[in-house]
Amino acid sequence: MRRAVPLAITFLTGLFLVVSFFIPHRPFGELEQRLLVWFAIVAGFTMLLGVDNLIRSHARKITRTSEGWGHSVVLLVGLVATVVVGVIGRVQFGSPFHLQSPFMFIYSYTIVPLQATMFALLAFFIASASYRAFRARNWVATLLLVSAVIVMLGRIPIGAAMSEFFPWMQEWIMTVPQLAAKRGIQIGAALGAVSMSLRIILGIERSYLS
C-alpha cells in the first residue's frame, strides 16, 4: 500500500500532464496550470525540508566537533544572517532586493566576490582540462585541436587582424559541424528524457521510492 499509492499518484499526474499538453481545451487546458501551481507549492515545502536537513546536519557536526566543523559554523551564521537581513529589508524597503537594503549589501559585497573567485579558479581547471584534451595523440584529437585554435583566433581581434579566414572559418565551424553535433546531443537527451518519463509514469522506474 505504501508503494501503490505513490505509484498511482505518479501515474495519474503524468497522464493528466500528457493529456493536457495534447488537448489544450477545458478542462484539460486549465489542469496543466493548476498542476504547475501545486508543483510550486510542493517545491516550497521541499525547500523548507532541505533547509531543515542542512541545519540539522551541520549542527550535528558542530556538536561533535567533527572535521571541518568551523566551516559549518560559518555556514549557519551566514544562513541566519542572510535570513535576518532579508526580513529587515522586506520590512524597511518593501523588498529585500531593494538597492539600499542590507540583503543587497551582503549580496553585492560577499556573494558576488565569492562567485568571482570561484569562476576565476574555474578558469585554471578549464585551462588544465583543455591542455589534456587538446594533446594531439591521434587524428581525432588533432582535428579537435585545430578546430579549437581556429575558433579561438576567430573570436578575438588579433585573429581578424591576421586574416579574414579565421572569423569566417570559426563562424562556419560553429554553425555547421558544431550545431549538427549539438542537435544530435539534444535529440538524444530528449529521447532519454521521454523514455525515463515513461518508465516513471508506468511504474517501471521506482528509485524515487527508496
Task: List the defining traits of the structure above.
single chain; 210 residues; mainly alpha; 0% strand
Q: Determine the mean pLDDT.
A: 86
The span between the termini is: 14 Å
The fraction of residues assigned to DSSP E strands is under 5%
| Helical content band | over 70%
Instruction: Give the number of helices.
Output: 8
Radius of gyration: 26 Å
Give the oligomeric state.
Answer: single chain
Low-confidence stretches: none
Query: Quick one: biggest sheet?
Result: none
Task: Tell the overall outline.
Answer: extended
Helix-strand topology string: HHHHHHHH
Overview of the structural elements:
With 210 residues, the protein is mainly α. Among the domains are: 1-64, no CATH class; 67-131. It has 8 helices and no strands. The protein has helices at 4-22, 28-63, 69-93, 102-133, 139-155, 157-162, 165-175, 177-201. Helix 7 (165-175) runs parallel beside helix 8. The longest helix is centred in the N-terminal third of the chain and has 36 residues, at 28-63. The protein starts with a helix and ends in a 9-residue tail after the last helix.
